């Protein structure tokens, strides 16, 4: 996720540097041909690209809104994961009373469940980005559990299954009653629902034909623009056309990046940072003072992942 400050101009213009270079060369060629050969018939009425520009602006605005809705839905889902993870840890700690049973075994059970929940958050974020969902799990769960989940294609689902097995074991041991077991199982269902919503967003492709039509219309608008301005500005139209084209191209690029919130880019939903926040909160609930490091360096970093 891009931060409010310190976004370098190099990053912004780097998204369209090749397109801008082509526009500048193309416009310069049009200007040179017009001036050298006095080709007045090359000019077209300014109203033609103005009408196209208005239509394209509306289409880009609609597409940007749709792309932002996808990004915001992803962020909302992960906001729910934060709340549910905290509630899950609180329930595990409050429902399972280590003073009434074998304190060592119960304490191990509580810690295992909460640390596995931290592992689930990291694993889900890695899986959604197309990375290895097992990477780094050994910091939170045992080698035996890492080996078990490695057999699954969907590692986060496997971790939830381990949650369910431990929960059934706790019920048989009498550490939780039936009502508490149902409440905890409902939390697992909420985690599964959140994972499914994220997978739906990732696997639902933004309509390709819609994007393609807008892209073609935008390119045609940029191609016409130098011919409409050549009678008024001469050589000055090169930076003017570049500036206008850059405005439209940046909006298009913004929509393209926002429409895929799990694509491992600076514009992504900050799942790693959110998972680190969950880790911090849950470890503090366990009285574990080995907290994760902060992720943002205000002097150098302009985004968080």
From TrEMBL:
Pfam families named among the record's database cross-references: Bestrophin_2
Primary localization: membrane
Q: Does the keyword Cell cycle apply?
A: no
Q: Which UniProt keywords apply?
A: Cell membrane, Ion transport, Membrane, Transmembrane, Transmembrane helix, Transport
Q: Where in the cell is it found?
A: Cell membrane
> Mind telling me which residue stretches traverse the membrane in this protein?
20-37, 43-62, 205-226, 232-251
Q: Which PANTHER family match?
A: UPF0187 PROTEIN YNEE, VOLTAGE-DEPENDENT ANION CHANNEL-FORMING PROTEIN YNEE
Family, according to the entry, reads as follows: Belongs to the anion channel-forming bestrophin (TC 1.A.46) family.
Stated name of the protein: Bestrophin, RFP-TM, chloride channel
List the source organism: Chitinophaga rhizophila
